[in-house]
Amino acid sequence: MNAVAPTPAAGEVDNSAGLRRDQLRERLALFGLCSPALLIVLVILVIPVGWLFYVSFLGADGSFSLENYARMVERKSYLRIFETTFVVSLTTTAICIFIGYPFAYFLSQLPRRVANLCLITVLLPFWTSLLVRTYAWLVLLQKRGLINDWAIDLGLWDEPLKFVHNMTGTLIGMVHIMLPFLVLPLYSSMSSIDRNLLKAAANLGASPSRAFWTTFFPLSLPGLFAGSLIVFVLCLGFFVTPAVLGGGKVIMVSMKIASNIELFVNWGAASALGVVLLVMTVAILWVAARFLKLEQLGGGH
Amino acid sequence: MSERNSDALPISIRGVTKTYAGMHALDAVDLEVRSGEFLTLLGPSGSGKTTLLMVLAGFTRPDRGSLRFGDREVIRTPPHQRDLGMVFQSYALFPHMCVADNVGYPLKIRGMPKAEMAERIEAALDTVQLGGFGERGISQLSGGQRQRVALARAIVFEPRILLMDEPLSALDKKLRDRMQIELRHLHDKLGMTTVYVTHDQREALTMSDRIAVIDHGRLMQLGTPEEIYDRPANRFVADFIGESAFLPATVSNGRVHCAGQPLATRDAPPDAEQLLVMLRPERLRLLGSAAASGSAGDVQINRFPAEVEDLVYQGDSFLLYARLDDGTSLSVRDVVRRGTLDDLPKVGERITLGLHAGDTVVVADREGPA
Amino acid sequence: MRNWLARPASETQISHGQRLWLYLLSGLIMIWLVAPTLIVVPMSFSDSQYLEFPPENWSLRWYEHYLGSDEWMSATATSLSAAFLTMLLATPLGVLAAYGLHAARLPAGRLVFALLITPMMVPLILIAIGAFYVYVKLQILYTLAGVVLAHTLLALPLVLIVTAAGLKTYDMSQEMAARSLGASRARAFLTVTLPQIRFSVITAALLAFLTSFDEVVVAMFISGGDNSTLTRNMFNALRDQIDPTIASISTIMILITSGLMVLAQVFGKEKEPS
Predict the structure, then answer these.
(1) Identity of the residue in C9, C122, C213 whose CB atom sits nearest the CB atom of A278
(2) Is C203 among the domain residues?
(3) Which residues in chain B belong to E strands, given as ranges?
(4) pTM of whole model > 0.90?
(5) Where are the domains of chain B?
(6) Is residue C84 domain-resident?
(7) Chains with ≥3 Cβ pairs under 8 A against A?
(8) Which residues lie closer than 8 Å to C162 by C-beta, 6 or more apart?
């Protein structure tokens, strides 16, 4: 007669305490692998930024005060800086979308190998040093730069036009730096759109433009949103390009923070600005994360 | 390869429990695996059979319990010190190493000198009939060949216990059938204790010394293939193995009654409130009119009147779907013989199905083990 | 040509001819993207004080000036050392962290991952002044170690993300098989897992190098004196006046970047699974 296995005798060892300890030890060991990295982040990022928060609430006499934040709202120069920062960021993002969307679309329509070749034109500047690219634009756009020289030679205009040390130069440079940040995620999103959907739309009688606007465009929106957000957030905190191409006329928040430390050693003002910048960045990223999650929940149809 | 390993270890599993998020993956499992036997853990997906194998291997840490290999308690021993061989479902071969390096990996870890290593590797490859394949790259091998390399790698260091996690599931049917026999022969030759996981009952019935049927983390029945098939301990095992129809039955005056009739059964009925009569398709017989009317002397045949619903020709056999008077649907399977094809009843006909007492099995109608 | 223009270009049956504007626009964009960077190269060989394109007189004077200047050479050495050391530090730390998180598979792991990614989210200028403050306190301002630590902080998220992506496509049962055969976790990782994810690790290392080498903002604040980075000096030079030497330095930097990109591609091709 067969039987199910016999019941254990009373007093059998069950090892549960020992097993729990082993589990804990293993988990700690694995987390331990993260500890050096965490240590660096803690010491060089979390603690300093935390300290900056603290300092931003200190007045000139060392006591708790909101004067650093008040200054931002009261002083015209500060308000102008915020305005400039937003204007530059929004404009750059808008131009990037305007140029980048058709370009990404073009890339997504190419056969894989050709697209990869064309992507090099995006990746090469992307990986080239920021400083080198900014310098290149400086050389091109300055009074005696290439653009002016050629234009005058070709008779397009007589006097050299001012392309740098103003908003124009800054925007040209920023768009050039930021465009890959938009094109890459957008292209990735576009290439994963199911071609069969477009085929279906065409079969159902939609004209090419109608098929595009009703089918392709909505599906590309998540990628567009992600890319635009990355560009906008990067522009908010950007330093190098506006500093070089703006020539002191276009002052962004990051530059003010730098000058507050370098020139005035005003930690209070700098840290308050920094906190505001950080809060704005985090808020926007958080909204984006929620929005994208909702998109995913809503399903991609 | 060395001669038959007489040091195979028995495995003792006691009270092993594992819960994930409030659900029992393993529920106080007790199981004794005999030294040198081929034991299969059989069950549907999600039953816990793979979890149990992983506990044996050391990759899943149970909440409590005891695990002994021979007389050594190993439940807290890390996987790399358990000294057992394991074959994974995906084979898990190392693609950046050639076949010989794959097979030699455990030997290298054990610090074996190169010359001896080369010998052992070649012997292992010979055993799985891949002699001379040492220099090949993994990507150049077929599915069946990869499976053998995984096997060679698992046995090359002569482990006393071998674990296998559905190793044949990725192969096509013909290859799988052949490998079942080969694996069994390999086990017989090498003699180590083997624990084999599968969801395929035919595979289990073919290869095993004993089968442990598992469902929802509990051991439903442990027995030889004959015991599992012919004397299921409960409804789950009866249902999972083979295809049966069930009829409710009761005991009165020491005899089993079904649908008002007394039944002739092989064994005494099990001790349970509710009973089920198991009707296996291949045991049921189509009775000719003479046998159907039932001569008085033939009390060994249980009769069930039914109506034919459908008839399916399957090449080597046929399936006849019938409905009993109480509405239960069942199927009858028999081989196709020249005469039988024409004699088969037509749809809608009334027939009588017969089940010999020796084939009439009554099962306790309970969901779990006693 | 006529025929090609009339042929359909996509599933929506739009023809190439109707899309010509898109092709032209994209071509212009591609030129616009690449041209500025490439123009710097020939300009660096120009002889005059004002960079011209094409150069009227070709010469290597700006390269000679760069190579002959102690200041520039010292800065280059600092940048290269910092980048190399950052690569050596950030890669193991990031790979181990990615592995630890992947193997542990705990819900808290997502939090740790998010925390390790924060250097990418926080505005660079904040990190710069924060590091400046801490370094003053720790007295490691203007040291190579300080630069390496800060750059490691910036490179860690990249290493983490790239390695985590590589681990996702890796079959962990191989590591389990190695462990069942007698390898400890560490040995299994080194002999089985690491060789399989080497493409990701190499890419991560190259990214760490580039991140450090190209970094400007943080270096501006925490590098200086003897340990001033190339980028810091270049930035200061740009703000003051246009020194044509920068063109030659830029060319060299472009070459280094392209070289590393090609390297990354080469290792990428090797990994193609059949």
Answers:
(1) C122
(2) yes
(3) 11-20, 23-33, 38-42, 64-69, 72-73, 85-87, 161-165, 193-198, 210-215, 218-223, 245-252, 255-258, 261-262, 275-279, 285-286, 301-313, 317-324, 329-335, 350-356, 361-364
(4) no
(5) 11-235, 243-364
(6) yes
(7) B, C
(8) C200, C203, C204, C207
Span C131-190, pLDDT tens digits: 998 898 888 888 899 999 999 999 999 999 999 999 998 989 999 999 999 999 999 999
Domains in chain A, CATH or no CATH each: 22-56 (no CATH), 74-298 (1.10.3720.10)
**Distance between CA atoms of residues A184 and C111, nearest Å:** 27
Per DSSP bridges, beta strands B261-262 and B72-73 are unpaired
Q: Is C214 close to A45, i.e. CB distance below 8 A?
A: no
pLDDT per residue as tens digits for the range B104-162:
999 999 999 999 999 999 999 999 989 888 899 999 999 889 999 999 999 999 999 99
The rounded distance, in Å, linking the Cα atoms of A269 and A68 is 5
Q: Does domain B243-364 have CATH number 2.60.40.1270?
A: no
**For residue A208, with 0-12 CB atoms within 10 Å meaning exposed, 13-18 middle and 19 or more buried, which class applies?**
buried
Q: Measured on CA atoms in the order C213, C216, C222, C226, is the torsion positive or negative?
A: positive
> In angstroms, rounded to a whole number, what is the distance separating the alpha carbons of residues B127 and B154?
12
Nearest residue of A to residue C235, measured between CA atoms: A131
What residues in chain B have their Cβ under 8 A from chain A's Cβ atoms? 14-15, 30-32, 61-66, 73, 75-76, 219-224, 227-228, 231, 233, 369-370
Structural domains of chain C, count: 1
HSE (CB half, 13 Å, CA atoms) of A279? 9
Decide the pairing of beta strands B38-42 and B193-198: parallel
How far is the C-alpha of A187 from the C-alpha of A105, rounded, in Å? 7
- In-domain check, residue C141: yes
Q: Residue C28 contacts by C-beta under 8 Å, 6 or more apart in sequence?
A: none
Q: Say if strands B317-324 and B329-335 run parallel, antiparallel, or are unpaired.
A: antiparallel
Write down the architecture of domain B11-235 according to CATH.
3-Layer(aba) Sandwich (3.40)
Q: Domain of residue C91: give its range.
A: 63-270
Residue C43 in domain:
no
**How far apart (Å, rounded) are the C-alpha atoms in residues B196 and C212?**
53
Q: Choose, out of C24, C37, C126, C207, the residue to mutate when testing the contact with A (most A CBs < 10 Å).
A: C126
| Nearest neighbour of C118 by CB, restricted to A41, A239, A277 | A41
